[in-house]
Design brief:
By secondary structure, the protein is an alpha+beta fold. The chain has helices spanning 12-31, 38-43, 83-92, 116-123, 144-148, 169-179, 196-205, 227-231, 254-263, 265-351, 357-417, 431-439, 547-551; strands at residues 72-74, 80-82, 113-114, 126-128, 138-140, 155-157, 166-168, 184-186, 193-195, 211-213, 221-223, 238-240, 251-253, 423-429, 446-447, 451-452, 459-465, 476-484, 500-504, 514-518, 539-546, 559-560, 563-570. A hairpin with a 5-residue loop joins strand 1 and strand 2 (80-82). Helix 10 (265-351) packs antiparallel against helix 11 (357-417). The longest helix is centred in the middle third of the chain and has 87 residues, at 265-351.
Length: 578
């Protein structure tokens, strides 16, 4: 423990101790910058409160901090310091003259080393628990912190957020679960874990399971989360009569409105009849409009026929003029060649003017004739240009009339075949020819005329792939229905929710119809309101019926006389008509 004896004339043992001291000094140069051991670092803050079983020897007391030495370092004068205290002493003193506070000897940093022998002795010293006398445990100094980590008398702070209470470890668990005002407890109604102080406010203002009085004063108590559901049946809520869309103005509490609906059946029937009469008048007006458009189509057809007759001579005349122009151009080319020849002749005649006056006169006459022919050709060109402008004008008129005729025919066809009861019977003729065309890739599918679920209802159409689509390509007939943009979409409920039945009709008379139905998925974009000038994605069955069963059924006849009948039916239950 003491410094090695290095006096002159010492024994051989003194020389060995001097060598050992030198080795320790060299070792200290490597270890002096190392980390402090964990147990000593943890005891640094409580070293002065530690009580030893036996009185602490003075040599184990740090002369700087006057506490037990932790991580002991021995200097050249033989005194022992804490590692941290010695480092602080060296840093606060002049680098050339750090002095030992015990005897004033100069401390040489190169001769300072870690005293592991002293460290082992100190670590084995017995001490009382810092919670003495409540805790009577006696442990070695190096195991004190380990004991304190489990000591039942150690003071700890409550871990619940917002609680600052400090209590012994033995009482902590009971405090956390039973007495702490900041502990977490489940709501007695909805079982949601909440801080104890917030449970009452939660129950009074937001707990979904607490029963509260109806806000419409019907004297019923309902869970808070079912208030909206209760509103749909509460007799005190003000509602409109269900016949309001037919003109009934009654609005009152639900119970009174129900009595009104039961008592005013005759009045409501009159309103419905009046509405039906108005709809019949609209249908008659539409039929009259269809007749007028049919007459317009006939008139346009006659006008088109007359224009076509007028076009025939114009086309013939144009052809003849083109021939004339071509001939005139050829004549002009010949005349230009002749003119060149004449000019050469004139030059020759000019040289022999005296001897060829008569010949010159003939050449002038020829030149005048050529000029007249050129003028006639130019006139023909102008006339041809006029005829071409007339032809273009008549052609544009013909295209306009043809386009209008096509639109009128399509509108007339839709007016004649459109239904307004949610049903469609679609006759598909030329089955085999159209199926073979689908096999070749053109057209990909057939689409029916539109039909409606009411005069102001949804507009729909059926689609069929005779050679199959998607998973049924080449093996099944695929059948779909598609929502189209209608005139009354803004007044209808979306998404479309009605059940749709698709059928192939048996033509044998046995009524063994092939039918499948589906209920729309509200999350599918196919049943949302169609965008402007567009239709939705079709929905139905890609594998509706195998092609082998379709063409060769056992107890039915789906294809007869090369004709197929498709039926679409929309379930109108729960669908309110406008």
């Amino acid at each position: 423990m003491a410094a090695a004896d290095t006096k002159p004339g010492g024994s051989e043992e003194s020389t060995m101790r001097s060598d050992e001291s030198t080795m320790r000094s060299e070792e200290s140069r490597v270890r002096s910058g190392g980390p402090v051991p964990t147990w000593e670092s943890e005891l640094a803050s409580i070293r002065h409160s530690v009580k030893f079983v036996l009185a602490l020897k003075e040599e184990f007391v740090c002369p700087v901090c006057r506490g037990v030495v932790l991580n002991p370092q021995q200097n050249s004068c033989g005194h022992i310091y804490c590692y941290s205290c010695l480092q602080g002493l060296l840093e606060s003193s002049s680098p050339s003259s750090p002095l030992c506070p015990v005897d004033g000897a100069v401390i040489t940093p190169a001769e300072v080393f870690q005293d592991n022998c002293c460290k082992r002795e100190i670590s084995c010293l017995e001490v009382y628990c810092t919670n003495y006398p409540e805790c009577t445990s006696v442990v070695t100094l190096q195991h004190l912190q380990e004991h304190l980590s489990s000591c039942q008398y150690q003071q700890l702070q409550c871990t619940n957020p917002g609680c600052r209470a400090e209590l012994q470890r033995r009482h902590l668990q009971d405090h956390l679960t039973t007495t702490c005002p900041h502990r977490t407890e489940p709501c007695p109604h909805c079982q949601q874990p909440l801080t104890l102080s917030l449970i009452q406010d939660h129950v009074q203002s937001s707990c979904p399971q607490v029963e509260v009085l109806c806000p419409y004063s019907c004297s019923q108590k309902v869970p808070r989360l079912k208030l909206e559901e209760h509103e749909d049946s509460c007799p005190e809520v003000h509602v409109d009569c269900v016949y309001r869309r037919f003109g009934c103005p009654v609005q009152d509490k639900r119970g009174k409105v129900k009595l009104h609906e039961d008592a005013a059946v005759n009045h409501h029937m009159l309103l419905v009849l009046r509405s039906n009469t108005h709809l019949e008048q609209q249908v008659e007006a539409l039929q009259g409009e269809a007749l007028v458009r049919q007459q317009e189509v006939q008139t346009n057809g006659l006008l088109l026929a007359g224009l076509q007759k007028k076009m025939v001579p114009l086309l013939q005349q144009s052809s003849s003029h083109e021939n004339a122009v071509s001939a005139a151009q050829r004549t002009l080319s010949r005349q230009e060649d002749l003119l060149s020849t004449v000019q050469l002749d004139i030059q020759q005649v000019s040289r022999g003017l005296c001897s060829g006056r008569e010949e010159l006169e003939q050449l002038r006459k020829s030149l005048d004739a050529v000029i007249q022919e050129v003028s006639a050709t130019e006139a023909l060109k102008e006339h041809l240009g006029t005829l071409e402008e007339k032809l273009q004008h008549h052609s544009s008129l013909l295209e306009l009339h043809t386009s209008q005729l096509s639109r009128n025919e399509q509108q007339l066809q839709e007016l004649g075949s459109t239904s307004y009861d949610g049903k469609l019977i679609w006759k598909v003729d030329g089955f085999r020819r159209k199926k073979e065309a689908e096999v070749k890739g053109q057209p990909p599918c057939l689409t029916s005329v539109p039909f409606h679920t009411g005069s102001c209802g949804y507009k729909m159409a059926a689609r069929v792939y005779l050679n199959g689509d998607g998973d049924g390509r080449g093996t099944h007939l695929s059948l779909y229905v598609v929502l189209m943009q209608g005139d009354f979409d803004a007044l209808l409920p979306w998404p479309f929710k009605q059940t749709v039945s698709l059928s192939l009709l048996d033509q044998s008379g046995a009524r063994n119809h092939r039918s499948l139905n589906f209920r729309p998925d509200p999350a599918s974009k196919s049943f949302l309101r169609p965008a402007a000038e567009s239709v939705n994605v079709a929905s139905g069955f890609s594998c509706f019926i195998p092609l082998a069963t379709l063409e060769n059924p056992q107890n039915a006849s789906y294809v007869d006389d090369d004709t197929l009948f498709v039926k679409v039916k929309v379930d109108m239950a729960g669908l309110e008509q406008l």
